Amino acid sequence: MKIQVTVAWSPAARQVHEWALSLGQGATVLQALEASGLPALAPEMDLHDAAVGVWGRKARLNQPLREGDRVEVYRPLKVDPKTARRERFRAQGARAAGLFSKKRAGAKAGY
Q1: What is the pTM of this model?
Q2: What pLDDT is recorded for position 102?
Q3: Per CATH, is 2-74 categorized as 3.10.20.30?
């Protein structure tokens, strides 16, 4: 019996590679990655150290897959999200950013 799964990998922003695979029952995340051809497309990537997930949740390489699963390979972050937010806030200024930046005319402070 076969299961249908999808493997997705994004090497850069706005670039997504997806493979629809038919694997045997009980196939693992690692088997799906190998069957996708990803090792040949990105030989510098070590699959055993790659961050992977199934439907957005972190997964182990030996995790068995189910029908319709989507295996995702995550690339490392270039910038810490907290640092990026602080820099954006600093560049915009305190008055132009935040929850209460767009006030209604005549409204009380904070609304």
Answers
A1: 0.71
A2: 63
A3: yes
